[in-house]
Amino acid sequence: MTAATTPKGERRRAALVAAAGELLVEGGFDCVRHRSVAQRARIPLAATTYYFESLGDLVTNAVTYAGDHDVADVRARADTVSRRRRGAQATADILATVFFPADSADGMREVVSRYERLVVSTREPRLQAVQERLREELTALHIEVLERSGRGVERRRVQRLMAVEDGAALAAFTLPEGDPHRAVRDAVVDVIDSLAPPG
């Protein structure tokens, strides 16, 4: 048994991954460095090179951690959605609330990090598989929320709906007073009846 697979080793590695994931969400990819991760985890700097093959390996684990936490938070909000038929406005409100929370700074940081990870992964092959899995999970959660809202769901159309959300959110990020939650809600209400019609 190596040190990395002992209970203590697993705890230390998990602490480093959590620290890296938190730094990624808080400040972006430039914040994930061996020294900053070790300081956040309160673990000796040498541990970062002992448990991870390279900075790229540490970053991949950070992306996985941050993405899994984002999906878990979305799932927790989706689980609160009651089953009832909703009109276009109510459905747009629910989707914006579940996937683009506006009620906290933490929620906004998660949304910004979601898109930052998505963009960076297009240049990093090792991150692409992670992002594909996370995107699939978000697609499944969209389908679940739409079904709970009495909407018909066709996977291809749900993916188009998500593309509308992506465009609205990214455009909002570029504006000084941009509000991704409101931008997504307003964009979705215009297309929801064609992309996810009432069932």
User: What multimeric state do the chains show?
Assistant: single chain
The main sheet comes to: none
**Poorly predicted tracts of residues:** none
Q: What is the CATH topology descriptor?
A: Tetracycline Repressor, domain 2
Determine the N-to-C terminus distance.
56 Å
Provide the structure class.
mainly alpha
Task: Quote the average pLDDT.
Answer: 93
Number of strands: 0
User: How many domain units?
Assistant: 1
CATH architecture: Orthogonal Bundle
Q: Indicate the proportion of strand residues.
A: under 5%
In N-to-C order, the SSE pattern is HHHHHHHHH
CATH level 1 class label: Mainly Alpha
Please, could you describe this protein's structure?
With 199 residues, the protein is mostly helical. It contains nine helices and no strands. The longest helix is centred in the middle third of the chain and has 24 residues, at 55-78.
